[in-house]
Amino acid sequence: MDVVAIMEALAEQGVTVLFKADAERMAEGRGPWTFVASGAPLREDVFVRTDAASVEQCLAACLPRLREVGLSFPGCESVVAVDHVGRQARVPNATPSSAELEKPRITEGDG
Q1: In this structure, are residues 21 and 51 in contact, taking their beta carbons and an 8 Å threshold?
Q2: Are 35 and 50 in contact (CB under 8 A)?
Q3: Residues 6+ away with beta carbon under 8 Å from 65
Q4: Are 73 and 6 contacting, i.e. CB atoms less than 8 angstroms apart?
């Protein structure tokens, strides 16, 4: 999976994307990765965000939600997700079940 290509595709569509690795959460054994997407075509006060154990889990949780608002990711028809017990699975253009991944938060306001 080409994370840079995904981020560039989103940026070309007016979306600001942030990936963050949190050393404190990693040291505590919690999912250190955060994905946040904001900007057009999302409303000004809305963003898509999730925290997860891996970049792939972040994308598997958030890309389907971003597709729902009309965004596209050429060459990224599916992403690899890792479920709660470490099994890998392809996640097609659909939101993963809550058993597989935490749903992304759609947040309004300052964040």
Answers
A1: no
A2: yes
A3: 48, 95, 104, 106
A4: yes
Helices (H) and strands (E) in the chain, counts: 3, 6
One pLDDT digit (tens) per residue for the chain, 111 residues = 688 999 999 999 999 999 999 999 999 999 999 999 998 777 766 789 999 999 999 999 999 889 888 888 876 655 444 444 444 544 444 333 444 444 556 555 554
What φ, ψ does residue 34 adopt, rounded to 5°?
-130, 135
Question: Judging by beta carbons within 10 Å of its beta carbon (0-12, 13-18, 19+), is residue 74 exposed, middle or buried?
Answer: exposed
Strands 79-82 and 33-38: unpaired
Q: And the tokens for 38?
A: 């904001």
Helix, strand, or coil here: 37?
A: strand
Measured distance CA(78)–CA(93) in Å, rounded: 6
Q: Of 104, 72, 98, give the one whose Cα is nearest residue 84.
A: 98
